[in-house]
């Protein structure tokens, strides 16, 4: 069954006259008659009865008409939406993101977005994951990019990719030459970590406990920048997502295993609030860029 079959069927059902229906859909009467026969053969039931010169819709035709009309309305609405999406976007886009993704991922996505949609006014707010969730629920953001918050309540969380956390040390650190490191090897190792209020810290505490390791936490901070600043100045390590660490010859990133701490970044949306056109376009770009990032991590 093809789309034209539905259009021909609805045209004939609306006029019950082959000549007028053929004119409406811009085909010959014989073409229309042939297409209706094809549709009836595929369905296995007659949709119209020919009584002399009159055309009468059957009970099966009446039943099918409601569904066919609804399907065409949905298709036409979708085509209209696609045409609008192809046109220049305007309006405002409000995005909440955590610090990790505001380092490079969000700026890169935003630059690409504004290249294609320069008339959209973009507002980026760097917030904690729980604050992003609260702002989304209050209708103050269009979408968020974060790790899954503790409670999503009425929000929709859409995973983008998985990201392994790594040990970050200075180039002069005794562990700098390591290719990989087991978490048990960090037992009593001096580390600077995020404060316990962060879900990433709670994940790390669970991983250390599973490995039977107790690192020496010499400092705690609520920013990645402060952690990395201490790493460059002291013989300590930090644990962070690679996306949060700017490339630097002064730093080394070492994958961890047994277990490997892993976070899942994702899109946060308010399922009760219809997405704006800029919101849908930016969400689509985020998914595309996230797939590229995942493929890059997989290859490396």
UniProtKB/TrEMBL annotation:
Where does the record place the HTH lysR-type domain?
1-58
Residues in coiled coil:
none
A Gene Ontology term for the protein's cellular component: cytosol
Could you confirm whether the keyword DNA-binding appears in this record? yes
> Which Pfam family, any one of them, does this sequence belong to?
LysR_substrate
Q: Which UniProt keywords apply?
A: DNA-binding, Transcription, Transcription regulation
Query: Which molecular function term from Gene Ontology is one that the record holds?
Result: DNA-binding transcription factor activity
> Could you say which residues form the signal peptide?
none
CDD domains attached to this UniProt entry: PBP2_LTTR_substrate (cd05466)
Which family does this protein fall into? Belongs to the LysR transcriptional regulatory family.
Record's protein name: Transcriptional regulator, LysR-family
The species is Bordetella petrii (strain ATCC BAA-461 / DSM 12804 / CCUG 43448 / CIP 107267 / Se-1111R)
- Name of the encoding gene: cynR
């Amino acid at each position: 069954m093809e789309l034209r079959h539905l259009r021909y069927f609805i045209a004939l059902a609306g006029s019950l006259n082959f000549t007028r229906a053929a004119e409406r859909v811009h085909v010959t009467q014989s073409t229309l008659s042939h297409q209706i026969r094809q549709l009836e053969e595929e369905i296995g039931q007659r949709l119209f009865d020919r009584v002399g010169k009159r055309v009468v819709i059957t009970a099966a035709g009446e039943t099918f008409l409601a569904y066919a009309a609804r399907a065409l309305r949905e298709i036409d609405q979708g085509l209209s939406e696609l045409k609008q999406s192809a046109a220049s976007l305007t309006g405002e886009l409000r995005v909440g993101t955590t610090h990790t993704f505001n380092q490079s991922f969000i700026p890169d996505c935003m630059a690409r977005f504004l290249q294609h949609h320069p008339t959209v006014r973009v507002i980026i707010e760097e917030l904690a994951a729980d604050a992003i969730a609260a702002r989304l629920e209050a209708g103050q953001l269009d979408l968020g990019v974060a790790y899954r918050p503790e409670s999503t309540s009425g929000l929709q969380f859409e995973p983008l990719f998985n990201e392994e956390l790594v040990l970050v040390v200075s180039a002069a650190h005794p562990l700098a030459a390591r290719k990989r490191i087991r978490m048990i090897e960090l037992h009593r190792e001096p580390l600077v970590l995020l404060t316990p209020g962060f879900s990433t810290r709670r994940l790390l505490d669970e991983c250390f406990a599973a490995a039977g390791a107790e690192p020496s936490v010499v400092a705690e901070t609520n920013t990645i920048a402060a952690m990395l600043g201490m790493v460059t100045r002291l013989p300590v390590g930090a644990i962070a997502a690679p996306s949060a660490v700017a490339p630097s010859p002064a730093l080394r990133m070492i994958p961890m295993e047994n277990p490997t701490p892993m976070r899942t970044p994702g899109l946060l949306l308010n399922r009760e609030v219809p997405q704006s056109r800029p919101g849908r376009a930016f969400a689509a770009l985020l998914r595309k860029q996230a797939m590229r990032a995942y493929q890059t991590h997989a290859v490396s």
